[in-house]
Amino acid sequence: MNDRRTAGVGDVRLAYQVYGASAAPPVVLLHALGEVGSTWQETATGLAVSHHVYAVDLRGHGASDRAAAYSFELMRDDVVALLDVLGLDRVTLVGHSMGATVAYLLAGRHPERVDRLVLEEPPPPVPADPPRHLPEHPEETEAFDWAAVDAIYRQRNDPDPAYWDVVAAITAPTLVVAGGPGSPLPQDQMARLAETIPDHRLVTIDAGHLVHEERPEEFAAALAAFLS
Questions:
Q1: Cα torsion for 180, 184, 187, 190, to the nearest 10°?
Q2: pTM of the predicted model, to two decimals?
Q3: Rounded CA gap, 186 and 175, in Å?
Q4: Class of domain 3-227
Q5: Domain residues of the chain, as ranges?
Q6: Nearest to 83 by CA among 30, 152, 129, 147
Q7: Across 130-180, where does the E strand assignment appear?
Q8: What does the pLDDT look like over 131-178, one tens digit per residue?
C-alpha cells in the first residue's frame, strides 16, 4: 500500500507517494522526463520492506503543479524544499534520466543532504547527439507539461559545463546504473561521469534506457547490494 500526498514548495505544490514505515531510513525517488513517480512502483514496493520511500512527481509532471518555468536547477531546489517540509535531513536519493541529473545536482550542491546516491542512466553533461527537438505539434497530455520538455531539451542540447564540477563535489557513495548499448545515451561519457565522482560504483544492466522498468529484478538486486 502507498499513501498519496502533496506539499507546497515555493511556487509549486509537489505530489508524492509514500511507501513503508516512517521510522525506516528515507529514500527519495526521482523520475525521468515525461514520466511520473508511479513509474517507480515496483522499485518502491521492494524498497519499502526496509526503507521509508517517497516517489515524487517533479514540477510539471503527474499530479504536481504546472509551473511558469522549468529547469534542472528549479527541480533540484524543489526537492531540497520538499526535504525541508518533510523534515528529512539526509536521504538516499535515486534518480532516473532527468531525475538523475536533478539528483546529482542536489548531491553536489548540498552534499550534507545525501547519504547515498543512485543514478540510473544519468545524462552526462555533454550536448545531446542528436539534438533533442520537440514535435512540431505535440499532442496534449495530462501526464506532463510540454513546456517542461522544451526547457529540459534545451538544457540537454547545451548543458552547463560547470555540471562536471558539481559532479566532482559529490561526497556520497554513488551507484551509477548504465543501460548498455541499447541506451540512447553515450555510455563512454556515462562512465566518465561515474569516474568523476570520488566514491562510485558503475554497474551495466543491458536493458537500454529504462533499466528499472525493463529489468526490475536486476535493478533491485543492484540497488539492494549497494544499500546493504
A1: -120
A2: 0.97
A3: 17
A4: alpha beta
A5: 3-227
A6: 30
A7: 174-178
A8: 999 888 788 888 999 999 999 999 999 999 999 999 999 999 999 999
